[in-house]
Hints:
Blueprint: H1 2-25, H2 28-48, H3 53-57, E1 63-64, H4 74-80, E2 88-92, H5 96-100, H6 106-110, E3 115-118, H7 123-130, E4 132-133, E5 136-140, H8 152-164, H9 166-176, H10 205-208
Parallel strand pairs: 2-3, 2-5
Antiparallel strand pairs: 1-3, 4-5
Amino acid sequence: QQNKILKVIRKNIVKKAMELLEELSEDGEGYKSFYESFSKNLKLGIHEDSNNRKKLSEFLRYHTSSSGEDTTSLKDYVSRMPEKQKHIYYITGESKESVANSAFVELVKKRGLEVIYMVDPIDEYCVQQLKEYDGKQLVSVTKEGLELPEDEEEKKAFEEKKTKFENLCKVMKDILDKKVEKVVVSNRLVSSPCCIVTSQYGWTANMER
């Protein structure tokens, strides 16, 4: 019976905390100050509390490639997504400056798509559990298999490039041997000559670091 009482107390405390968070999140400057102090606790909650994960995700705030000095919520990010965009793009790293200048975000930004900058070490664990928001999958731009919206002409041009450089990729793979899993032509770069991506289901480079 005591356990039942404790469960009820816990449930009511969590419910009250959620209500207070929701109220506080509507106060711009007040929430900014709160978030700077307790963002890690919120993210830890997303990692550990599956029952309230969806609700807690509403209180996350991140810098993005379009937010400047301000932070944005996932809800606001989704509201700005072009109709053709199906996923939420993010990149993890050491600092806002390093991820903003990363080769991985070149094409995404050039296409006019927004990238979320996750620079807190706990973000790696948080995003592994969150996986999606509002039906939109969270996709790391540093992993293989990145798919950006493109028309038939762009798809055709990329397939032609892959065919053209197929032999070069084989030669480079032979030279690098076991240092890499494979060498492929990429359509994610603009000015950088190459980049090293991690497998879709493996750790990100930032996590390995």
